Amino acid sequence: MSVRANAGELNARVGAARRDTEARGETFYPGASRIHLAAFPPKERWDDWAELDSRSWPKRNERRYMLVPTTCFNCESACGLLAYVDRDTLGVRKF
Hints:
- It contains 1 helix and 6 strands; from the N terminus they run H-E-E-E-E-E-E.
- The chain is α+β, with helices and mostly antiparallel strands.
- The chain folds into 2 domains: 1-41, no CATH class; 46-95, no CATH class.
- The strands form 2 sheets. The chain has a 4-stranded antiparallel β-sheet, with no helix packed on it.
- It is globular.
- The termini are far apart.
């Protein structure tokens, strides 16, 4: 199977993410690959975003976050980041 065929198969598998997101009326933010992979969650769900906690695997423990746009000032680029704030502790869990 060629690389082009693999990319087409990948598009077919993950393409539903964009269609499903837009079908719900939510904003889809394309990633750098531009093949229907989202860069980050839809802004309509930033107030209450749920993810599975990777440290509790194989259990399926959900963690609830608020997503907050922020900026890194480590250099002069001022890159935009999305902070994942724990809803229980109000601490930043990840960027």
